[in-house]
Amino acid sequence: MTSENDVVQSARRQLLIGGTWRDAAGGATLPVEDPSTGRTLTDVASASSDDALDALAAADAAAGAWAAHPPRARGEILRRAFELMTERADDLALLMTLEMGKSLAESRSEVLYAAEFFRWFSEEAVRIAGRWSNEPGGSGRLLTMKQPVGPCLLITPWNFPLAMGTRKIGPAIAAGNTMVVKPAQQTPLSMYALAAILTEAGLPDGVLNVITSSSASRVVGPLVDDPRLRKLSFTGSTEVGRTLMAQASGRLLRLSMELGGNAPFLVFEDADLDAAVDGAVIAKTRNVGQSCVAANRFHVHASIAAQFTERLAARLGKLTVGRGTEPGTDIGPLIDGQQRDTVIELVADATDRGARVAVGGSAGTGPGYFYEPTVLGDVPPGARVLSEEIFGPVAPVATFETESEALAAANQSDFGLVAYVYSTNLKRALRVVEGLQTGMVGLNRGLVSNPAAPFGGVKQSGFGREGGFEGIEEYLSTKYVAVDL
Ligand code: NAP
Known about the structure:
Bound molecules: NADP nicotinamide-adenine-dinucleotide phosphate
Number of helices: 16
Structural class: alpha/beta
Radius of gyration: 23 Å
């Protein structure tokens, strides 16, 4: 494997516009930090609004030829990119760990998961179809066709620097769209590495343009207002999603919104407790808890809550906290000091209200933004940790007595991305699944993400689906033709 220094030195740091790697106007840059040390790794280009408009112009110029590019050829580029990502998983993982913090093992599994979106959508590229049907009154025929939606703006967060990109870029490419991608400013290097791989895989100039910037609104605002842009797909916080939706309403842009979560994890008295604890460990600690599908709050039947809390605490207490690049690290740092302070505040609020710390409960002394894996028992209703997205390795456990109480607690949230249900009673499990106000459910499973499945939420978690057969629909528009025979 390449050294840390080599992987950073060989990383792309310039904007990719129209197939050319170039500096930002005026040579502006922004620093990229290693969250495990707080030190600057390197600097990348920081785009101006003119750079952003250049990127959109490149996407617009490439749109016609790319839409006409044979679907099989589009799919083969994605397939080749999947293979290159898989071959280079170790180096990509190291780059991701350096700029984002999570352990190398977790970064590697993200690289492979991210690559799978390219494999899935390479297969979907050739299955875009329309319909030919009889007009019910017999007066003609109804023809529908699917066409690329047009130049897209794809905005991604820092928590899964590659996977949040490939699940937008994969279907956008497969459907024949061109795009401008704006990754989070904390994790630009992974996205540039991905862009270099797509270029190497044969993606024509201008189909994918990548701009990083120290000011998201400076580059996004002019793009959203530009009539050449036809679609905005955003993954990030509900707050920013709402702002973007308001901006996009001026031009009625097609939107996909993958927003915040606050997943309930329900454990009924008839659950397989071993499986529930295993699932809880995955759902809570994956990505250091910084995942929109992280189990945010555990609602456990009162008869087994103490046992569940103890067993989860024993498991989380054994995890090793450290720099993601160190062998044996399970839990890396949080992304930045602000995120660590939020976690500190939420835990303090819960303990002030009477919650009991079963394990953990402290932040590291630094450097780096570490927080210990933590389990809080007897968390009272009203604690902020039950209603706010934690984005850290903290598991608050609350109790319920009845099924309807459990369902009410689960649904008592503005968010509706995912819920987890542990029960061995089939009828109950299905009843609860039906009653949950979420876009996804993990039934006796702590992990739902899968490129072959439609990922997305309801309520304030947004709308639109990524992955599965539904994922490509977000990048197609339907044209209906009334045919007179
Ligand atoms: P964020 O602050 O909303 O940022 C997400 C992206 O939006 C970044 O690229 C950011 O750029 C950009 N952005 C910020 N302000 C903007 C503005 N005014 N106009 C245009 N773009 C703007 O979210 P985050 O903290 O990075 O990510 C965590 C959130 O994402 C959590 O709430 C999590 O639940 C959610 N998430 C949801 C999903 C899902 O599929 N539902 C998946 C992953 C994460 P800068 O980096 O320059 O600020």
